[in-house]
Amino acid sequence: MQCNLNKTDRGIRLILGLALVGVGIYFRSWWGLLGVPLLVNAAMGVCGLYHVLGISTYKGKKP
C-alpha cells in the first residue's frame, strides 16, 4: 500500500494512540488496545479505511 497519511494526520494518530494505550494501562483495561491500530497507522503512514474510501492526505511524491 502507498502512504496516504500526512505528517499532521500521523501525529494526531500517534498522540491519540499513546493516550489510549496509557489510559488502558493506568486503568488496567482492555480498552487500551484500541490505541494499537492508531499507533500502527502512525508508524506505517497507511490507513486501510482511507485506502478503501479513496482518501489521501499525503501530499508528497507517489512512487
Looking at this protein, list some descriptive labels.
mainly alpha, 0% strand, 3 helices
Provide a descriptive summary of the structure in words.
The protein has helices spanning 7-26, 35-44, 48-53. By secondary structure, it is mainly α. The protein has one domain (7-53). The termini are close together.
* Major sheet description: none
Rg of Cα set: 13 Å
Give the helices and strands as they follow along the chain: HHH
- The average pLDDT is 94
Total number of beta strands: 0
Topology:
Blueprint: H1 7-26, H2 35-44, H3 48-53
Quick rundown:
This protein is mostly helical. Helices cover 57% and strands 0% of the residues.
